[in-house]
Specification:
The chain is built from ten helices and no strands. It has one domain. Helix 4 packs across helix 10, helix 7 packs antiparallel against helix 10 and helix 9 runs antiparallel to helix 10. The model has no long low-confidence stretch (mean pLDDT 93).
Length: 254
């Protein structure tokens, strides 16, 4: 019974932390326990995205539907990851020292680099969804919409496990690094991985894009900052999502 209660507390905590979706009542919050459920929450967002896309497709042409899809992703997360993307871009591309870059990330104001990064990532998502919708069959595209948000949020698990947290006793992501994330907590990433098997060559390429994007971002973070922060995790989510949609929309499959 206690294990079952912990399961729901962890899942509810993950929903509350990275989305604005209703998660029921309760005061218990599990920062480290919720991490494993990030891919599951991504699947929830993906199912909602697929439903909205299906309805929007009955009302508008493809470019508008792609825009609606991206706005839904922004809305369902309360722009949480986008805020991290903007702050991370301001710090990482400031050409300042590590300590100064971390200070810049803490500034709630978004600078020019942050605005450019947000614009570029949102544009890539719109273009990727539009392209994927034109080259994928109906069923494959809906699976894609469901699993890409799960992959993107699952990517954060690698950053939490393999990089050191960059702030001492402060920051949005501090509690996530309280203990080393065990490998068994990656198990829920198996759901989007399993679903991708039904997408044929496109699913294989999607997994290669996911592995490559996560690896390159962690390498860049380590080389540039030798650490990771909550903002950088948010940036990782947004960039991974954009790259996956763009990769899925390539026309080389047909």
């Amino acid at each position: 019974m206690e294990e079952k209660k912990g399961f729901w507390v962890d899942l509810r905590s993950a929903i509350m932390f990275i989305t604005i979706l209703p998660a029921g009542r309760g005061n218990t919050f599990s920062p480290t326990g919720m991490i494993r459920f990030f891919p599951v929450v991504g699947l929830m967002a993906g199912v909602l995205l697929a439903l909205v896309d299906t309805v929007a497709s009955l009302l508008w042409p493809l470019p508008v539907v792609a825009l609606v899809d991206v706005l839904l992703l922004v809305g369902v997360t309360g722009a949480f990851h986008l805020d991290g993307l903007g702050d991370a871009a301001d710090g990482l591309f400031s050409h300042r020292s590590r300590e100064r870059a971390l200070e810049i990330m803490k500034d709630s104001r978004t600078g020019m680099m942050g605005l450019v990064a947000i614009f570029c990532v949102l544009s890539l998502k719109i273009a990727g969804i539009y392209a994927a919708k034109t080259v994928c069959t109906g069923g494959t595209f809906l699976v894609l919409l469901i699993i890409v948000p799960a992959y993107a949020r699952g990517g954060m698990l690698f950053g939490i496990r393999y990089l050191q947290y960059g702030r001492e006793n402060t920051g949005t992501g501090h509690d996530l690094f309280e203990k080393r994330l065990p490998l068994k907590d990656f198990i829920w990433l198996g759901i989007p991985l399993f679903c991708s098997l039904f997408m044929g060559c496109r699913g294989l390429v999607l997994n290669l894009f996911f592995a490559g994007t996560v690896f390159l971002m962690l390498w860049f973070y380590q080389k540039k900052m030798e650490c990771i922060t909550g903002d950088m995790l948010g940036a990782m989510t947004e960039v991974t999502e954009a790259i996956l949609f763009l990769g899925a929309g390539m026309s080389i499959y047909s």
